Amino acid sequence: MGDTNTGKALSFAKEKFFTDEAGARADVPKVLVWVTDGFSTDDISQPMQLLKDMGVTVFIISTGRGNYLELSAAASQPPEKHLYFVDVDDLPIITKELRDAIIDVIRAKRLRAVEITSSSFRLTWPRLLSSDTGYYVLEYAPADDPRRKLVKQVSGDHTSLFLSDLLPDTTYEVVLIPESNEHYIPPQTTRVTTLEEEISPTRVVISESKPHSFRVSWAPTPDSVRSYQVLYGPLPGNSAKLLEVDGAHNSTVVENLAPNTTYLVTVAAIYKSGKEKALSAKACTQEESSKVRHLRFEDLGPNTLKASWDSADGPVLGYRVRCRRQTGPSSLLSVSPQIHSVLLTDLASGTANKVCVKPVYRNQPGKGLCRMVHMQHGFMYKADRTPLELIFQVMHSVSSVGRKKILALSSGLDLEQTGQNSVLSECICWRCTGVKPVQTMRH
């Protein structure tokens, strides 16, 4: 029980409990019950398969949010009889069902089939021979077509055999013939019906959408599927591209897509029988922003401020920063794509200055982000700030005495006057002797 090094724990159980060296008897049914929260820090598929190859019946009880596909593959087949999902507090609910299932396994003393799917099943039988006393001949064929009989020879020390590439929803007649060199052992027979062919895909999910890629996932992934074909093309349009995916996988990432585009995605299952089943879904790539975000300013002195911005999306070659001063010449700075801030100087007191930052691309125009910055005698502010934001900025910069005065002044502001189409900016200055409002401006 637990989620740490489960693969190693399974290997330990195999060596310590289920081998001849550990004292395990070949003619005794073997059962493993794994209680887990559904996660493991190492691989469980290989050690679990080795256990099942030895004839061990594996029951799994998941108390967490484990991966259903991984757990259903690890448990003995079919998963409906060997895999349980239950909360820790509700374990008593499944106690009787699990106990009865284990008893059924232990009581089996003859040839029987387990792990039945639409295209396979595993045969198990008690030890009747050894490698020194003989071998087994296994014959199996569809009950309604005996001419399609297949024959396999199995070593005398084996007690199980996995049969695959079977027809779905078909009853098979199976005969196990022990060929002993010591005495006659009668054959054992059984009838096994494979499950109906599981239809795939029944669900297609689009996730991890980005400007140039998205992930396509589908379910279920039955053993009867040889491979999947993922066809995708933009809408509207007649062009499509194809991805081939192995039948054991249930997702793939589609790349090299156009941003802000709708695609038609079709997932087609190619069955081993030659049949095909397809399901389609629409997917949208995200818009690739060609605009910088969150242009910010930091006051570094009477006539200097620092402009900073967040990077733009896509393959940016650099940024151009233009400052249009109310008094004095405009300036244009070009910086590398790794630089996200510049210093702007010679900003005269009492002036309004427009600062714009535009990303530069090779194959598309960048969109500039602009802000108006007003320089006052002791304070820099942006023209598109609300009165409340301005009050908070000033309060952050002055003493506790000054904050009290600002609060007293702000109590007279009519903050409701700020609407969607007008922005009220309060210009607040301070002096060494106190704080008072200088002017109110509407932009």
Automatic annotation (TrEMBL):
The keyword Glycoprotein applies. Pfam families: fn3 (PF00041), VWA (PF00092). One of its GO terms (cellular component) is extracellular region. Keywords: Glycoprotein, Repeat, Secreted, Signal. Its main location: secreted. It is found in: Secreted, Extracellular space. Residues 107-198, 200-289, 291-376 form the Fibronectin type-III domain. The keyword Transcription does not apply. InterPro entries: ECM_Regulatory_Proteins (IPR050991), FN3_dom (IPR003961), FN3_sf (IPR036116), Ig-like_fold (IPR013783), VWF_A (IPR002035), vWFA_dom_sf (IPR036465). Residues 1-102 form the VWFA domain. This is von Willebrand factor A domain containing 1. It comes from Mauremys mutica.
